Amino acid sequence: MTAPLLFAAISAAIFVEVVIGMGIAFWRLQYGEADPLPINSEDVATATTGAWAGWREFRVESDAFEDCGRTQRSLIFTPMDGQPLPDFAPGQYLTFSLDLAASPTEPKRTIIRCYSLSDQPNAKTYRITVKRMPAPSTLPDLPAGAASSFIHDDVKVGDLLNVKAPAGQFVLDKTSDAPAVFIAGGIGVTPMISMISWSLAHQPKRRLYLFYGARNSSDHAFKALLEGFAQSHTNFTLNVLYGAPCADDVEGQDFQHVGFVDVALLKRVLPHGRHQFYVCGPPAMMAALVPALADWGVPKTDINFESFGPASSGYIRPTTGPVGAPLQKPLDVQFRRARRTVAWTGEDASLLDFAERHGIFVESGCRTGSCGTCETRLVSGEVRYGSKPDFEVPAGACLLCVGIPASALALEA
């Protein structure tokens, strides 16, 4: 064989191998068997931060109580599939499907609840912290919180729980270097722990302030952790407030102020200039403080907040139109499963609030358009959203927690 013919044969063989290799790679990509390929840093980042769809099974690896009163329990989870966990934005939460056992007064049922992640992201574990919710002191005959009681009394290390991917809009602005002010009441400190931990690790020069209100040392959560942050990071300032100090609580040591966080305190402590505020706490705190920040002159874009449960802070986020405006002509809203038709008059902030006010039960979770728990089939009519959901709502469905009627409705709920 001459040299030109030999060269041609070798070239042809190489060409065939390349074509076969490309074909195999294409087949693997099409059918999900491709190995990770380092295409470029942006693609790799997207792959590692992508969340999963639906429910994923996690195992409880360890637990700990974060307060002396043992009312705030942390659980650390690992995924059963062993795959790395996606990144999340500090401040986000996880959605849980909890199977409650039957009791003498309650049948077996599944409830959905959302709990803030209480640590900065890592690829192996997630952590949440849940406060046991007793019956209201003013209404002692009401039952204690079903989900929190279940997590405190029934969930054990080694148990498996179904979890949806991190979600939520109450997150730290990681692109900003403006001083961040975190204001937390009670268990509202959990998303702040995530935000502060991340910022101290990744933004060592950013000024951080935490104003944390607790009743007293008994339910002061993450005390050692927060005091450690303050001692080891000069850019972090800790202000703890006790509403009702115990006899042996020492001001200046266990806490810095008596009472509750208000704008007057913020004016005394914070230096002059722009700050980004992150606020999370019980209804009374939110209703008083968030509007007060706006009245102080803080731009709405610098006020980030998350309320507990269904309570509204009274501070309206930017919306697609007026919410809660009275209607001249009420709209009929039919709840098919409940076999009820009720007149929407515009008094409620959402269809979920509307349903609950009329005694119609709808399963819900985040109440902010993030978890999808209240997604309901829209049989007829049109729904618009006071605040944009975190995901694209499927055609023929609607989210009741952020939806309001644009016409008469028939809902599957």
Structure overview:
The chain folds into four domains: 3-49; 56-167, Elongation Factor Tu (Ef-tu), domain 3 (Beta Barrel); 180-307, Nucleotide-binding domain of ferredoxin-NADP reductase (FNR) module (Rossmann fold); 331-411, Beta-grasp domain (Ubiquitin-like (UB roll), Roll), CATH 3.10.20.30. The strands form four sheets. A six-stranded antiparallel β-sheet has the order 4-3-6-1-2-5, with helices on one face. The protein has helices spanning 3-31, 41-49, 146-153, 189-202, 223-232, 263-269, 283-296, 351-357, and strands at residues 56-65, 72-79, 93-100, 109-116, 126-131, 160-167, 180-185, 208-214, 236-242, 257-258, 276-281, 303-307, 331-335, 340-344, 375-380, 383-385, 397-399, 403-405, 409-411. The longest helix is centred in the first third of the chain and has 29 residues, at 3-31. Residues 14-49 and 310-324 have low confidence and may be disordered. The radius of gyration is 26 Å and the shape is globular. With 413 residues, it is of the alpha/beta class.
